[in-house]
UniProtKB/TrEMBL annotation:
Domain UspA: residue ranges: 1-132, 140-283
This protein's record includes keyword RNA-binding: no
Record keywords, A-Z: ATP-binding, Nucleotide-binding
InterPro entries assigned: Rossmann-like_a/b/a_fold, Universal_stress_UspA, UspA
Protein name (database record): UspA domain-containing protein
GO molecular function: ATP binding
PANTHER family attached to this UniProt entry: STRESS RESPONSE PROTEIN NHAX (PTHR46268), UNIVERSAL STRESS PROTEIN RV2623 (PTHR46268:SF27)
Record-linked CDD domains: USP-like (cd00293)
Family as reported in the entry's similarity comment: Belongs to the universal stress protein A family.
Length: 288
């Protein structure tokens, strides 16, 4: 079960959603929780000091309210430094099981957030990140588990289970596959009947692959429904989120390889940018 969590806040409405969800999780699991605000050091010293003092006063003024919401008094940390680096360092220092952040800005610069704070934490390889997009109106009861038959996706499900997030929820595993030859067949003038037959064969094979993967990774007790859909992973996830309206999407990221990639992976990157449900992103196990 969740033992400790940290919420990174910039006092925005986006961060407020993360704070409310973090408080609900802290109360549900009876775990200690920490609120962190990082003052950007790249500004005049007097402004750094003023911001730090003001933020602490604002957060401390809410302690009674927050204690009621979370079932225990949160620890407040106001730190100075590079926000991206400091958030990672503080989360690891607190030995948090989970870091909660608000959604990124929906703007032309939205990729800056995904490519910094969330990506840096995930690249640390040790800490799951919960991006909160929706108000915390209820516990997570309906989950979508993104599966791609990789150890990273299985690990994400097991981590969510260890954190207690699957408890009492309906969990749907979704697997996307794309029959690449379909486009070539259409371009070559192959009949629709032959194309449908080909897609049907590929779909049955994908279903068998998913079942074998779930069995091998010991995910059967954790998944209530298995969904297989044709399409690119990002597009399939978008359709499934629109159809099922899950409270939470759980997904893993791939290993970075010999040279660490600048991005956390195209599917996770797309989900964090475009999908409006809460998203738990879990870094891979060492060596994956």
């Amino acid at each position: 079960m969740l033992r400790s969590l940290m919420i990174a806040t910039d006092l925005s409405q986006r961060s407020e959603k993360a704070l409310q969800r973090g408080a609900a999780l802290a109360k549900r699991f009876g775990c200690p929780w920490t609120l962190l605000h990082v003052v950007d050091e790249d500004q005049p010293t007097n402004l750094v000091e003023q911001e730090g003092t003001q933020v602490r006063l604002i957060l401390e003024a809410r302690l009674v309210e927050l204690t009621t919401l979370g079932g225990s008094c949160p620890r407040i940390r106001v730190e100075v430094g590079d926000p991206n680096q400091k958030i990672v360092a503080c989360a690891l220092e607190e030995d948090a099981d989970l870091l909660l952040v608000g959604s990124h800005r929906k703007s032309l610069l939205r990729d800056i957030f995904v490519g910094t704070t969330v990506e840096r934490v995930l690249r640390s390889g040790r800490l799951p990140v919960l991006m909160v997009n929706q108000p915390a109106e209820r516990d997570y009861r309906d989950l979508l588990l993104a599966l791609d038959t990789s150890p990273a996706s299985a690990n994400a499900v097991h981590v969510a289970e260890r954190l207690g997030l699957l408890q009492g929820a309906v969990c749907r595993g979704v697997y996307a596959f794309s029959p690449l030859a379909k486009g070539m067949m259409q371009y070559s003038g192959v009949s629709e009947e032959r194309i449908d037959e080909f897609v049907g064969t590929e779909t049955r094979q994908a279903v068998d692959e998913l079942k074998a993967f779930i069995r091998e990774q010991q995910l059967e007790p954790l998944i209530d429904e298995q969904l297989v859909a044709v399409g690119l992973p990002g597009n399939v996830l978008e359709r499934m989120v629109g159809k099922h309206r899950p409270d939470l999407l759980v997904m893993g990221t791939r290993g970075m390889g010999g040279i660490k990639r600048a991005l956390i992976g195209s599917v996770a990157d797309y989900a964090l940018r475009e999908l409006d449900c809460d998203i738990l992103v879990v870094p891979p196990l060492a060596g994956d």
